[in-house]
Amino acid sequence: MASFLRTASRLRPAAARSIAFQSSKMTTAVSFPAQRQYASAAASATISNDVEQPFFPDEPKGPTVKTAIPGPKSKAAIEQLEKVFDTRSLNMMANYNQSFGNYIADLDGNVLLDVYAQIASIPVGYNNPALLLAATSPEMASAIINRPALGNFPQHDWAEILETGILKVAPKGLNQVFTGQTGSDANELAYKAAFMWRRQHERGGAHVEFSDHDIASSMVNQSPGAPQLSILSFKAGFHGRLFGSLSTTRSKPIHKLDIPAFDWPQAPFPVSKYPLDQYAAENAAEEQRCLDETERLIKEWPQPPAAVVVEPIQSEGGDNHASPAFFRGLRALTRKHNVLFIVDEVQTGVGATGKFWAHEHWGLTDPPDMVTFSKKAQAAGYYFGNNELRPNKPYRQFNTWMGDPARALLFRAIIQEIERLDLVQNTATTGEYLYKGLERLAQAYPSEIQNLRGKGQGTFLAWDSPRRDEVLKKAKTVGVNVGGSGERAVRLRPMLIFQKHHADIFLESLEKVFKA
Amino acid sequence: MASFLRTASRLRPAAARSIAFQSSKMTTAVSFPAQRQYASAAASATISNDVEQPFFPDEPKGPTVKTAIPGPKSKAAIEQLEKVFDTRSLNMMANYNQSFGNYIADLDGNVLLDVYAQIASIPVGYNNPALLLAATSPEMASAIINRPALGNFPQHDWAEILETGILKVAPKGLNQVFTGQTGSDANELAYKAAFMWRRQHERGGAHVEFSDHDIASSMVNQSPGAPQLSILSFKAGFHGRLFGSLSTTRSKPIHKLDIPAFDWPQAPFPVSKYPLDQYAAENAAEEQRCLDETERLIKEWPQPPAAVVVEPIQSEGGDNHASPAFFRGLRALTRKHNVLFIVDEVQTGVGATGKFWAHEHWGLTDPPDMVTFSKKAQAAGYYFGNNELRPNKPYRQFNTWMGDPARALLFRAIIQEIERLDLVQNTATTGEYLYKGLERLAQAYPSEIQNLRGKGQGTFLAWDSPRRDEVLKKAKTVGVNVGGSGERAVRLRPMLIFQKHHADIFLESLEKVFKA
């Protein structure tokens, strides 16, 4: 209760009462099993002897499964929703009033340990008390009902909100932010910045005016005003589903089919063999092959790339990893050819990999030109590092909203919570513990866990499963909500507040699935 | 005070106290001039003798201008913001704590009548008490801190939020919604739906599987998987600034320069002559010319259009109007050629034109296939009318957020406020009154107000001004915040709570500018 009380003591009385209400509602409404005994052979070895202080002592002690999922109440609600909203992708109808911390509840009294977290988006737990404070503050209410057109009529404290929030965690070497709405949006804003930057260089600098030919051709979507330039991305990469971002997305046909796309190049992304130490030489050769092909495409593609975009860990595409050396090689290549280097941290950003930004693992001395993010930030923007990336005229990067102060306020509260609980360190420590547990399970069930990956990358772990979809489905029956990526990967995306005792529950549940 | 009290009586006590606080803060912090006498010759004729009940009696009685804008405090704040955020498009640094109803305040004690309203986005007034209630509700707090991935884990009351909110105002003939994030996003989602629908027809129906060639070519951005299809838009149209939406935007070069675009067709939009009754025959011929050219492009463009997208009133492009007959002609043409008809109501939607949706003015018997909106809805989505527009498989129209329950809750409160105060009727009535006043001013100052337009379109009025930017700038010195569109239009975008007494103040202020 200590951490909760520390937070609560800073609160306005009304909000504090609201939290107390929330908290008591949680503990009465959900029936928790008594503290579990972890008797299973493989999993028991993973139980920590450390005395671990839970971040949220009011959290359920473990999952509760009362019915099949979906149960009868969920089925009725899904049927109602289907009339007005496509439910074919529905995974679970949630009751967020009954969800808390790492646990997601449904309408039938089922409460699952959630290691999927709204596709890697919930950062510090459902109904986090500190976020509830931020959400019920007068600043938040004003931001919601007086939503400004930020580019024209920013609110008086916008600089302060940025400086005490988003910019406080700006990646090294980058000190400015452009606020957008979603991950796809952030990527497209970054691509636009790259195209403007490239054309400005081609023209000879910011002071050189657009030619009449530029102006006239831009209005009929023809070159040079609408230039024949490209963004280079990687096979199996995912960067969003708007028309520009989708042209760089190469994850799955179902994401791309029937949508017109730009004729932009894709380089191969390294296909690493596991375990890494056993295939060091082969993997290094594979990475060099991919770098060589990237360089060839930069030099030879008919529509020259203005930027290269890459995920630190390819997420939707199947949790594909590459070494820091590969990414340093990309930075060197892009620098050499005067192409911008955009790191898409939409899914990897904000603490889950044991660093605040996943690209911190690379040891770059020359930072990326732009870093995009969304998801755990509950907001999106792109960072840039110098004035060169500001377009030469106003209204070139502009839209009505230009972000959302409400989401920026929430992200500030998320950052404060991450700092208060030292959550980046937590994902590093818990991730290592979880990885070891998975290693032991992989030894006991080698056909179930293949190509285990993400060592040293916090809780951002994954493995291949020959019966992936069945495993995901059965996990619900033992109280775990977990997702997949690519064709056969199980991807773990727990929240930043996922601790060793949660890892124990997860590992035990997973073994139950394997045994069944 | 009656309307406010009616709202307040339904409130939780804490929220009601909060509103009372807000309201008293407003009345004490801003110094209001005494009730004005409208002595000016041209404007005085416009003063209504009706006894008009003000919606918000606590609103300022008129503007206050204390300093040049920006004043010293604003200048300091802008300087601070410039370090981290591009301020070259900044119009006015606002203090939303001090803004109320139709009035926007800055940091130097200036309080302006706002007929620009965050680029046509604020629907029912700054710090609207009913919206404050919604923003401080437990549902809102939960929606903010437990943001779901709606396609996978919708909240249990998502159907109810849609049904009692967005869908309650669905345009005639359309009964489903796909929720997005912004106007650009909504348009791109609609375009994607159109492309999928078109290709499905070409394949022979929803049951026909994608071919191997479709699948393989989609992954390398080539036809047929990434088809050579297009969206037809109109010259001077604006549909957003993402890569797909920008390819249909034809407003200004500064919006498009240096950004790669699809080779999509643009048809001419009618250039009407004013006054309309004087040029009826010429305008009809011009509209027929545009329809003929549209049909030619549909039939002949190498990348056939899957849809035609049009704004009911071209807004960013200069407030260009066409007749209902033109739009009925477009509907007929698209029907004839089996092309979808998308109406972009991002700026015109939600009550400002004297109808909830501007396309209601057209008297269509065959509704549009999709209607997109954002701005005053503080949210975006696209409506569609039948199951044919649901893609044949899940995950084809999908993203992490799929909208935002917090914004959907706010839009529900906006709809309730529109109903409670009968605001669509108000924009019709006030618009007519305002138009007449502008007509009189145009007669008195014919060189200042040219091509006055928007008669019968609520408060969605505009005119051309030979010294437009100067007029906009000087308007601030007499207490009015007003915006432009296109190269020389002054566009009025007051909120839905803009009443006759506001119109009087606006007209009087405008005359001051003309006289100066």
UniProtKB/TrEMBL annotation, chains A, B:
CDD domains in the record: OAT_like
Swiss-Prot/TrEMBL cofactor(s): pyridoxal 5'-phosphate
EC number: 2.6.1.19
Catalytic reactions on record: 4-aminobutanoate + 2-oxoglutarate = succinate semialdehyde + L-glutamate
Keyword set, alphabetical order: Aminotransferase, Pyridoxal phosphate, Transferase
Alphabetical GO biological process terms: gamma-aminobutyric acid catabolic process
PROSITE patterns cross-referenced by the UniProt entry: AA_TRANSFER_CLASS_3
GO molecular function, one term: 4-aminobutyrate:2-oxoglutarate transaminase activity
Superkingdom: Eukaryota
GO CC terms of this entry: mitochondrion
Homology family: Belongs to the class-III pyridoxal-phosphate-dependent aminotransferase family.
Official protein name in the record: 4-aminobutyrate aminotransferase
Organism: Mytilinidion resinicola
